[in-house]
Write a structure and sequence with these properties.
The structure holds 2 protein chains of 2 kinds. By secondary structure, chain A is an alpha+beta fold. Chain A folds into 2 domains: 7-70, N-terminal domain of TfIIb; 86-283, Naphthalene 1,2-dioxygenase Alpha Subunit, Chain A, domain 1. Chain A has helices at 7-10, 104-112, 117-120, 224-243, 264-276, and strands at residues 14-18, 27-31, 34-40, 47-51, 58-59, 61-64, 67-70, 91-100, 137-140, 147-156, 167-177, 180-187, 190-203, 209-217, 250-251, 282-283. Chain A has a 7-stranded antiparallel beta sheet, with helices on one face. In chain A, strands 2-3-4-5 form a 4-stranded antiparallel beta sheet, with no helix packed on it. Chain A is globular and about 55 Å long. The two termini of chain A are 26 Å apart. Chain B has 2 domains: 2-78, Glutaredoxin (3-Layer(aba) Sandwich); 90-195, Up-down Bundle (Glutathione S-transferase Yfyf (Class Pi), Chain A, domain 2), CATH 1.20.1050.10. Chain B has 7 helices and 4 strands. Helices cover 50% and strands 8% of the residues of chain B. By secondary structure, chain B is an alpha+beta fold. In chain B, β1 (2-6), α1 and β2 (28-31) form a beta-alpha-beta unit. Classes of the chains: A alpha+beta, B alpha+beta. Chains A and B meet through β8 and α4 of A and α4 of B.
């Protein structure tokens, strides 16, 4: 396994495990091709992580949004903000951790894509003949440098675990981290609020990931189990699509793959990765 | 009333959902969170099935575990045409049993490789894949010779049996365990026939057949 020598990715916080799945016993995972161990501890951080072959040196950790995050390089800035997570009336559910043979950027790009809903998530996030992706806006926000897609609208037969029939759903997508995306969508139970679904991708290697989902919703009725099962179904449907993408790394050369209008957010995401100088999990554009 | 102790991403549970759908039987699904909660190993579930395995079927006060056994029961009880479990034909019935056992071997290999890759189980994935390829080769040859004599299904005859349903899920999910089906053309043709059985239904990771040609 080749180690990651992309400094931008090395210095990011990366998700490694749901906090509820951490035990006092040592657990191992792989991050950027390196074996990393972690365990619950009793000090203020709640958990400790270290390189498996260097057990005496602790890695930095952050416990946030239901997950444990670490950094193999120098964490030069805090993890991105997700203020909704702290709202008192939200249900925060760590919904799934699934292994997928795909690069992290391909997984994020699939998350941003509405065009596949009627075909891959049939009867849930879309259905024929409602296949049109209407015009939407994508920008890179100046203050935060997040990619933001707004005015996304899509007809969904079952938008969430708590949905009761089809609705035209409004989406805002945000990419605050090269391997993470946050989706804000109309809440079936409260018109004035937005449900949050976040995809946190753990880059195991350049071409394999663990996909972690956080669901943060205003929903008094659904059980945690039904929220998790809903998300597992969606991940299970995406998995074969992602694993059959070729090449597995995301090509950043604008001529490498032919986008259509609906792929506007993917075009901006790819350009944004290029501008950040990302090389891990992508095929960089020729200079 | 039928209750199925069920997990959406389990191929063995999907077998039962598929047969129930084909036979047009209404049922209630009781979700048991296999992953990550491992609820099938919880004490309450072990009281229902001491083996700690999914699926389990309850039909009024009758409880049955093991996906293959459940299919035998459902077909024997609810298939009035007697075609899915051909009780009146000893040779076909024998063949059905043979391929049900074969389906268990597919579960122990192809499904195990999928559990390693997707759900972080600690099995020997290399050995599981090798065994799955050995089984797929045997089935592919069998189906190729069947097709040559005009038969579409695993057990020779005019209509499918529960042997087809038993083998189908973990073959179709094999790529999630890095087991390609590229070299098994007869399996691919057979799986298209299965997908066109009236009442066919999907699970995450398995797609419906394309438009008929």
């Amino acid at each position: 396994m080749s180690l990651c020598n992309d400094p931008v990715i090395r210095n990011q916080w990366h998700v490694i495990c749901a906090l509820e799945d951490i035990s006092p016993r040592n657990t191992h995972t792989t991050l950027l091709g390196e074996s990393v161990s972690f365990a619950a501890n009793t000090d203020t951080t709640g958990a400790r992580a270290w390189r498996t072959d260097a057990p005496d040196t602790s890695l930095p950790v952050t416990c946030a949004y239901g997950y444990l995050w670490t950094c193999l390089g120098t964490a030069d800035k805090p993890l991105f903000a997700l203020p909704e997570y702290a709202e008192a009336d939200r249900r925060n559910v760590c919904a799934a951790t699934v292994g997928v043979r795909v690069s992290a950027p391909r997984a994020v790009e699939n998350f941003l894509d509405m065009g596949h809903f009627p075909y891959v998530h049939t009867g849930i996030l879309g259905e024929q003949p409602h296949t049109e992706v209407r015009e939407y806006d994508v920008t890179v926000e100046e203050s935060t440098n997040d990619v933001i897609a707004t005015r996304c609208r899509f007809y969904q037969p079952m938008a969430a675990a708590g949905a009761d029939g089809g609705m035209l759903v409004e989406y805002i997508y945000r990419v605050p981290h090269p391997y993470c995306s946050v989706l804000y969508k109309s809440c079936p139970s409260d018109e004035s609020r937005l449900d949050v679904i976040a995809l946190f991708v753990q880059p195991v290697t350049e071409e394999t990931i663990r996909a972690h989902a956080l669901v943060s919703v205003i929903d008094e009725n659904s059980t945690d189990l039904s929220i998790r099962m809903f998300q597992q179904t969606i991940f299970g449907q995406d998995k074969p699509i992602l694993e059959n993408q070729f090449p597995k790394r995301l090509p950043l050369d604008p001529r490498a793959e032919t986008p259509i209008r609906a792929d506007k957010s993917a075009i901006v995401y790819r350009r944004w990765l290029s501008d950040l100088g990302i090389t891990y999990g992508v095929i960089p554009a020729a200079a | 009333m039928i209750t199925l102790y069920d997990y959406e991403l389990s191929g063995n549970c999907y077998k039962i959902r598929l047969l129930l759908s084909i036979l047009g039987i209404k049922y209630h699904s009781h979700t048991v969170e296999f992953y990550p909660a491992a609820e099938h190993k919880a004490p309450w579930f072990r009281q229902i099935n001491p083996l700690g395995q999914l699926p389990v079927l309850q039909d009024d006060d009758y409880t049955l575990c093991d996906s293959q056994a459940i299919m035998v029961y459902l077909a024997s009880r609810y298939d009035s045409g007697n075609s899915w479990y051909p009780r009146d034909d000893p040779q076909r019935l024998g063949s059905v049993s043979r391929w049900l056992a074969f389906a268990d071997s597919i579960t122990n290999s192809a499904s195990s490789a999928r559990l390693v890759e997707g759900f972080f189980y600690d099995f020997d994935a290399v050995a599981c894949r090798a065994e799955a390829h050995r089984l797929f080769r045997i089935l592919d040859e069998h189906l190729w010779f069947n097709a040559k004599s005009g038969h579409h299904w695993i057990v020779t005859g005019d209509s499918p049996t529960i042997a087809d349903i038993a083998c189908f899920p973990y073959i179709m999910l094999s790529e999630e365990g890095s087991i390609s089906r590229q070299d098994y053309p007869a399996i691919r043709r057979w799986s298209d026939h299965v997908k066109r059985i009236p009442g066919f239904t999907v699970m995450p990771g398995i797609f419906p057949a394309g438009p008929a040609q």
